[in-house]
Structure formats: C-alpha cells, structure tokens
Amino acid sequence: MSVLGADxxxxxxxxxxxxxxxxxxxxxxxxxxxxxxWVAGRPDxxxxxxxxxxxxxxxxxxxxxxxxxxxRMANKTRKVPNKSDPTELFxxxxxxxxxxxxxxxxxCMQSETIGHVRNKVGDAVAExxxxxxxxxxxxxxxxxxxxxxxxxxxxxxxxxxxxxAHSFKQVSPPKPDKGRAPSxxxxxxxx
Length: 191
Hints:
Elements: H1 6-19, H2 24-39, H3 43-56, H4 60-75, E1 77-78, E2 87-88, H5 89-92, H6 95-111, H7 115-134, H8 149-157
Antiparallel strand pairs: 1-2
Helix pairs in contact: 1-2, 1-3, 3-4, 3-6, 4-7, 6-7, 6-8
C-alpha cells in the first residue's frame, strides 16, 4: 500500500531515470530538480517516495538505486531555523513523518530477497540509526512499547525472508595434534 499518489511516483521514477542517465545534460537537469524541487521543497515526500520505490518497484536496480539515493539524501545537511549547526535532512522532518518513513524502511529491509539490494537497504537503515544515535536519542513510539523499539525492529527486520538458521555455518575449532602446538601458537623451547 502506497502512502503517496501515483502522480508523485511517476515523477520520482522519471527523476531516478534521469539521475542514472549516461547523458550529462539529462543527469545535470535531474540533479538540479532533485536539489531545488525535492530536497529544498519537499524532503518528506522525497524520502517517503524513495522508500516506496525501494519497496514497490519490480526492478531490482531501481530498488537498489533508490536505497543508495535515500541514504545520500537522508545524510545531506541543511540549515534549520533556531539551530546553529546544519542538520541532516531526515532529522529535520517532523516526528510523525520520521516514524512513517522509518517503519516503511524497515518493511523494505524485511521483505527484500535479493542480497545486494538488501545490503543497500540495510545501509539506509544504518544511516537512520546513526542519525538517531548522533543526536543522542532513540525514536519515540506512540504506544506502550519501549523506547528501544527501533533497534529491536531493525534486528527483527534483518531476519527477513532470506534469513534462516542454516545461513550460519557452525564452525568448531580444530583439534590440536598431540605433541604439536595448535596453529597460531608458538611453542616455547626449553631454555
């Protein structure tokens, strides 16, 4: 289920296509549009739109590119009134917008089945977690759940559909030969 309308997704799809173009003119116009119309004018719509592209696009390369662009845009700083230092874009959003974006982002991580795309979505999740950590705050939930739910939800999302207990190979340490020191150890010579 999409939060944003189809018209916004069409414009974002065209923007992503322009940003990934091999033609310098097309890419430059797309970068200008990204910075002036989206980052400066509608950062909440941009970030939610990118998350929805990560989740809803049938094309893995679009999902991957949307994840990379999300991380870069969320990390972009801008001047905020009443603050002396620039603030990262995601942290300038209102708390309900942050919650909606973060929830959808975790859903993307949980549902992504292609490894390299999942890694990029994980990088985007890690960027948001870093921003919360740098600000010395954990996201607040409007429920009875604890303040640490973002970290718990992130760990649960990391165990998405491609996770299984068989993903981890149990490795036991090698058994040393009698009379020989285990590899990695130096045997001391009697003095």
